[in-house]
Specification:
mainly beta; 8-stranded antiparallel beta sheet; 7 helices
Length: about 625
């Protein structure tokens, strides 16, 4: 039965034969990295560690370059096993509810559907009682194998209140009220045989129902104030404005509601009237949760093997390569130096927060022929646009059209793989993020320049102390997403005399929040202003994790120009252009030593030019009075 339910839940899901992820993206000597693998193959798979030098598969650059690390990690052979995952968010009580009514049972909630007429969707359920929305958009009350349907067509994005009730005498009823039109009430009832037994011991769920422990019939939309009444009295109820940053909602009986796969919190509820935009000031206006059939937070796979980072392991970028029956995967992780110790003069700051926010970005311009264009390259063969059930990025939309505002690394991330190509129809490498940043890594190796790796995780947790002793801190190509903690650390480093080298574009742009209890999940609210894939709904600009205003750092009084002198101004197509030299001061000629051309960077593997796609500018209105000398300018 469980196998049949699982197959039913996977009927629209496309999966990868061999794939995995880690419990962390970074670690230090003495710490452990756990590898969680799913293999649908029959043979044993092999795991082998490599140091990643170049993640660009372009043959013109030499293709992928990695060094095996068999002396650090003895290759393993492990038994293949498939590990399952279940997209979709819902709520379930932490404990079963015991009840033995003498008269009646009543289920109720307020709801706001955002996607109708797709499949049956469950609003609230306990034992063999449930209120659902049918595939035709009607409300249906299910009780003990029977159904009562209200012949009224629901509308999307309207608030309703529904009550389903059955008495021991067999009289069942369902009542629906349209909250924007209180006079518009619908009710239907029926009389059946005497109910022989009302004794139940089961968990209550919202936004999905459980069949033998397997979730199904996910609801797309908001739910508010679910309640269970027994004999005219409230047995259980939950206020969804409580515990806003948590994935548990408390109640008086201490039977908490566990929220699976992190549905969206801090969303407007039925009482929101536009008078307050911050949920911390008026919680009752935000007493709803937005559930989605495609929410995903943690795959919850078991650990297949663990790698403890040796004390003498060099800081750098590493990948654990998996192979079996011609299939491969390469799971990256970053090794930082020991705590309170530097092993080089230069620190490369790896933008793992940006990697996470972009994780599994399914580009709207993706085409399957990209794989044909690059079929001679050792490129990564999978694209999130074809595997959306693995969870998309915050640059994508949920199936109901709402923006994805949470990003998690507790799942496989396709675009965090060596050889992954972002722009498949480009004549150049077509890279962004992790793969593009490897050009900097390979340059350091080619020049035999030592470096340490520090990621956003260490910078956020440990502050300026983690970078204070480096002569220079160098960013990658796109350090876009930052918390207050990471910006504070970089500013403190700069102000103390550190050399902060911003090597990218569109950096320090969006503000994000990190969950206190679940640090592997980040939150982005795309509030007013900025180039964005979607916009947060009015009233939903404040983070659920910390209650602070989201959006651009510029809108929060911290434009990128304050930190590094320049900031994002425009975005174009993936075509690069050169810089043209503008500065001819003799005291700065040393910068151009050995360079005689006026045009700089009219070539390259990213858009075939040094500047392009996303561009920064200086702005005296936004900086802190930096003394800026423009050496060259793109044109």
């Amino acid at each position: 039965m469980l196998h049949q339910l699982y197959l039913r839940s996977l009927r629209h899901m496309k999966t990868v034969p061999l794939i995995g992820y880690t419990n962390t993206l970074s670690g230090r000597p003495g710490q452990s990295v756990e590898f969680k693998v799913s293999s649908q193959l029959t043979s044993n798979y092999k795991a082998r560690l490599f140091r990643s030098i170049n993640a660009d598969p372009n043959p013109a650059l030499g293709g992928l370059f990695e060094k095996h690390c068999d002396n650090i990690f003895v290759p393993l052979t492990l038994q293949s096993r498939e590990q399952k995952f279940f997209p979709g968010s819902y709520g379930k009580t932490t404990n079963s509810i015991k009840f033995n009514p003498t008269n009646n049972i009543k289920l109720s909630c307020k709801f706001y559907p955002t996607l109708l007429c797709k499949t049956e969707q469950c609003l609230i359920s306990v034992a063999n009682f449930s209120i659902v929305i049918t595939c035709k958009g009607n409300i249906q009350f299910n009780f003990q194998g029977k159904s009562l349907i209200l012949p009224y067509q629901l509308e999307e994005r309207k608030w309703y209140q529904v009550v389903g009730k059955i008495t021991k005498a067999g009289r069942a009823s369902i009542k629906l009220k349209k909250l924007q039109d209180p006079q518009n009430q619908k009710k239907v009832e029926t009389t059946g045989p005497l109910v022989k037994s009302f004794i139940f011991n089961d968990k209550l769920t919202v936004a999905a129902k459980l069949e033998n422990g397997i979730p199904t019939n996910y609801f797309n939309g908001k739910i508010e104030g679910p309640e269970l009444h027994i004999d005219g009295k409230i047995k259980e109820s939950w206020n969804f404005s409580n515990d806003m940053s948590s994935n548990f909602v408390s109640n008086r009986s201490l039977n908490y509601m566990e929220l699976v796969n992190f549905p969206t919190r801090a969303v407007t509820s039925s009482e929101w009237d536009g008078s307050e935009m911050n949920w911390t000031h008026e919680p009752k206006h935000y007493a709803a949760i937005h559930f989605h059939e495609d929410d995903i937070f943690d795959f919850e796979w078991d650990t297949d093997f663990t790698f403890k980072i040796p004390e003498n392991m060099e800081s750098g970028v590493y990948v654990m390569r998996l192979s079996c029956e011609g299939y491969e995967d390469a799971i990256p992780f970053f090794v930082c130096p020991p705590i309170k110790k530097t092993t080089a003069n230069i620190c490369i700051l790896v933008s793992t927060f940006t990697y996470s926010v972009y994780g599994n970005h399914a580009r709207p311009d993706y085409s399957p022929n990209w794989k044909e264009i690059k079929n001679e390259w050792p490129s990564y063969p999978y694209n999130p646009a074809e595997y959306k059930n693995y969870g998309l990025s915050t640059y994508n939309l949920h199936s109901d059209g709402s923006g994805i505002c949470y990003a998690s690394t507790n799942r496989p991330l396709f675009n965090l793989r060596p050889g992954y190509i972002t722009f498949g129809n480009s004549a150049c490498s077509g890279l962004r993020h992790f793969q593009a940043d490897s050009h900097l890594i390979s340059w350091f190796h080619n020049k035999n320049i030592g470096y340490d790796i520090i990621t956003d995780n260490e910078l956020h947790n440990e502050g300026v102390e983690v970078i204070r002793d480096y002569a220079a801190v160098v960013t990658g190509t796109h350090p876009e997403y930052h918390t207050k903690e990471t910006l504070d650390a970089l500013k403190a480093y700069r102000d103390s005399g550190g050399a902060l080298n911003y090597m990218g574009g569109n950096g320090f742009y969006w503000k994000i929040a990190r969950n206190f209890k679940n640090p592997d999940i980040l939150e982005i609210r795309r509030a007013e202003d900025g180039i964005r894939a979607w916009a947060s709904q009015p009233g939903e600009y404040y983070n659920s994790f910390d209650g602070n205003y989201g959006g651009l750092w510029r809108r929060n009084g911290r434009p990128p120009q304050q930190l590094v002198g320049i900031g994002f101004t425009a975005q174009g197509t993936f075509i690069g252009m050169p810089f043209k030299r503008k500065c001819f001061k003799k005291e700065l000629d040393w910068i151009f030593e050995g360079i005689n051309d006026l045009l700089l960077g009219d070539f390259g593997y990213s858009g075939n030019g040094a500047a392009g796609f996303e561009l920064d500018r200086i702005d005296p209105m936004l900086d802190e009075g930096h003394k800026i000398e423009i050496l060259a300018q793109s044109h």
